[in-house]
Amino acid sequence: MKTLETFLIWAVCYHAGNGIRLILIDLGIGIRWQRQLFVAVIMLSLILSTFFVYPIWHD
Predict the structure, then answer these.
(1) What H or E segment, with its residue span, contains residue 13?
(2) For the chain, what is the domain count?
(3) Rounded Cα gap, residues 28 and 47, in angstroms
(4) Is residue 56 a contact partner of residue 6, using CB atoms and an 8 Å limit?
(5) What is the SS3 assignment for 40?
(6) What is the distance between the alpha carbons of residues 44 and 36, in angstroms, rounded to a whole number?
């Protein structure tokens, strides 16, 4: 069960970050930096999910 919760938390963090990335691209701000924004979203979602998952795995 902890594994599924971990993947769910990561998916929510990624989905939120990717939504912000898509808004920036639609506004024309992030068109030049699509690849860098994608990498940043992946890295930030991993970092954020680590903070949220830590209490689940360390009861």
Answers:
(1) helix 2-26
(2) 1
(3) 27
(4) yes
(5) helix
(6) 12
All residues at 6 or more sequence positions from 5 whose CB lies less than 8 Å from its CB, including other chains: 53, 56
DSSP state of 29: S
CB contact set of 42 (below 8 Å; sequence gap of 6+): 14
> By residue range, what is the domain housing residue 42?
2-57
Per-residue pLDDT tens for 32-55? 999 999 999 999 999 999 999 999
Contact 6, 53 (CB under 8 A): yes
Tokens representing 10 are 């990561």
Average pLDDT over residues 27-33: 90
